[in-house]
Amino acid sequence: MTPRPASAPVGTVTRGTTNPNRLRRMDRWIAAAHGAELRRAADPLAVDLGYGAAPWTALELLHRLRTAAPRTRVAGVEIDPARVASARPYEREGLVFLRGGFEIPMPGSPVLVRAANVLRQYDEGAVAGVWRRLCARLAPADPATGSRGGLLVEGTCDEIGRRHVWVALGPEGPRTVTFATRLGSLERPSDLAERLPKALIHRNVPGEPVHAFLRDFDRAWAAAAPYASYGARQRWIRTVRNLTADWPVTDGPARWRQGEVTVRWGALAPRGW
Question: With contact defined as beta carbons under 8 Å apart, do 151 and 163 qualify?
């Protein structure tokens, strides 16, 4: 994997906070939702953009994606040269670490770009431009093969990965928003509001779609309280099933059982987006 000619990386250094297994919920969703695209691709390249102060998330991404698509290669990309240098001893077959930013410093078109906890420190106004730049680097759709193209997954989670919300984007732009949680730690669905990605976190106010969604989510959770006697999973499944009456949920019980729900982006997009 040959990097592009050296140029100034685009972006700023993040705090770099990372922990083993922090991104497990996002990784498992990617493997399930995007595994077919990775298997289909001639060059199934995935990028862990802004992996942080330690290389664990890139190592885990390689392992989890290869369970779904054994030919997958992963490039960990960081803007901080010291982080790249400390990660390079962990390189192995299918895994490299490169210095770079939103320009993604390598030839070709990634089939996946994962950017977890990267945009949290940016202004909300910067998000759309970063999304456009990264989506332009994704592998294009190919109607002849049924490919929808590459996927950008951008979101935020807590320090140990119990609560996570991410947006999935294709070459054409945003597609869906996924909410994922460890059900045993959840008091109410709106607890996930503190992990909304940057495009949505400041829009959790009356009059915005994401606020209405979380309000309805909490109401459905309260209505499903009798199912709590069967466990938090059964209560969550009933809650999401009730949500489908008013919101365009795109997944089904197999994912709901994992403590997830995915909704079309258009239903939650900020006013005026």
Answer: no
In three-state secondary structure terms, 116 is strand
**Could you tell me the two tokens for 150?**
């590459």
Instruction: Output the pTM of the full model.
Output: 0.94
Element spanning 211, H or E: helix 209-223
Looking at the DSSP assignment, which residues form a beta bridge with residue 180? 164, 260
| C-beta pairs of 181-189 under 8 Å, 24+ apart in sequence | 181/25, 181/259, 182/259, 183/232, 183/233, 183/236, 183/259, 184/232, 186/232, 186/236, 186/259, 188/218, 188/221, 188/222, 189/214, 189/217, 189/218, 189/220, 189/221, 189/239
Bridge partners (DSSP) of residue 92 are 95
Beta-strand relationship, 151-157 and 163-170: antiparallel
CB-CB contact of 269 with 131 (8 Å): no
Reading the chain (273 residues) residue by residue, the pLDDT tens digits are: 554 445 677 666 666 567 789 999 999 999 999 999 999 999 999 999 999 999 999 999 999 999 999 999 999 999 999 999 999 999 999 999 999 999 999 888 999 999 999 999 899 999 999 999 999 999 999 998 889 999 999 999 999 999 999 999 999 999 999 999 999 999 999 999 999 999 999 999 999 999 999 999 999 999 999 999 999 999 999 999 999 999 999 999 999 999 999 999 999 999 988
